[in-house]
Design goal:
The chain is mostly helical.
Length: 186
């Protein structure tokens, strides 16, 4: 049986399309398929260990925030892998550590970005560690601020958190990171 090059190309294109479609269904987006979530593994492990944060949680957060692009820039001025706000996490980190605020160029450096981001996440995790869903509260704080996280905390330490989050984008953010985090620890 003779197959022309044109038919092979069509079959190859169809196979590629089908693969991307299956991956999109599994991962939620074809964009997710092309993310190398093993980038910066050593740097993530070092910063996570320094701040007593599970490295898998940091990876899940970075996936959500920047898709592992150290040059990512958010529409509200967030910078780098962990999408740090200079007026938020960065300013808090500098004030508490009694150091000058790093400049924008420094915040694009993965090591510096991970240092501040893991510090900020670790602080939130310690703030909510007594809660059964403390990780959800910490992620809500990372995304929407401590004031909102305080309003969303359940009445009891074993209460549910997600249903209390009133900003739908923050609720999705927390759900997606937790889902990915669980896949990383399995």
């Amino acid at each position: 049986m003779k197959i022309s090059f044109r038919k092979i190309s069509a079959w190859g294109a169809a196979a590629l399309f089908a693969t991307v479609a299956v991956v999109a269904l599994v991962n939620g987006s074809p964009r997710n398929f092309f993310v190398d979530d093993t980038r910066f593994s050593k740097e993530i492990h070092r910063a996570a260990a320094r701040h007593r944060v599970p490295p898998q949680l940091v990876r899940a957060l970075i996936f959500q925030e920047s898709r592992f692009d150290p040059n990512a820039r958010g529409y509200k001025g967030e910078i780098g892998l962990m999408q740090l706000l200079p007026s938020g996490a960065v300013a808090d980190w500098a004030r508490i550590n009694k150091v000058a605020e790093p400049g924008e160029d420094e915040l694009f450096d993965p090591v510096m970005n991970l240092e501040i981001g893991c510090w900020y996440l670790g602080r939130a995790l310690r703030r909510w560690h007594d809660y059964k869903e403390g990780i959800a509260l910490a992620l809500a704080q990372y995304n929407a601020g401590e004031g909102r996280a305080k309003r969303w905390k359940p009445g009891t330490k074993d209460g549910k958190v997600l249903s209390r989050i009133t900003i739908s984008s923050t609720r999705r953010y927390v759900e997606q990171i937790i889902r990915r985090y669980r896949s990383y620890i399995q």
